């Protein structure tokens, strides 16, 4: 549904929108920081930046009620976890060669699992770290009453949302083709 929203938004505006890759998401979350969180490594400071298990009252909240990171982006830690374009591969970061990490992208080959970032209102501080990642799951559709189950509706993932990006330059069709093919096949 997030990808379809991006397609709709692109069609309505004439500008190209998509989900961020995992690398883009983490880069935006960190906002230049190399610490555990965009604001440093002290999880006691999360109260100022994030909705999470200790302060969320068991629900998500309106965006922008907590402090932004140093680039002005709100809710990068907590509130809702966010979809990315990437296939979730547990060892993806470990297997990359040093120096070959310029916006890496794991092209999806299957519907599950996909990479989800940011942590949510129901997570503990360690799941809100800038580097924390989670795989999506078929279980997030367990209560879907439709037969067959909807490819869009994740009834059991009320902690999940998305953020869109718009590249400065619209990518060429050669660049987009592998992404579009993987989205069509998922």
Keywords for this entry:
9% strand, globular, 186 residues
Description of the molecule:
The protein is built from 5 helices and 4 strands; from the N terminus they run H-H-H-E-H-E-E-E-H. With 186 residues, it is α+β, with helices and mostly antiparallel strands. A 4-stranded mixed sheet has the order 3-2-1-4, with helices on one face. The longest helix is centred in the C-terminal third of the chain and has 13 residues, at 173-185. The chain is globular. It starts with a helix and ends with a helix.
Question: Summary?
Answer:
It contains 5 helices and 4 strands. It has 186 residues and is of the alpha+beta class.
- The coarse silhouette is globular
Helix content: 10-25%
Q: If you compute it from the alpha carbons, what radius of gyration comes out, rounded to the nearest whole angstrom? A: 17 Å
- The average pLDDT score comes to 89
SSE blueprint and pairings:
Layout: H1 2-13, H2 22-30, H3 46-49, E1 81-87, H4 92-95, E2 114-117, E3 133-135, E4 160-161, H5 173-185
Parallel strand pairs: 1-4
Antiparallel strand pairs: 1-2, 2-3
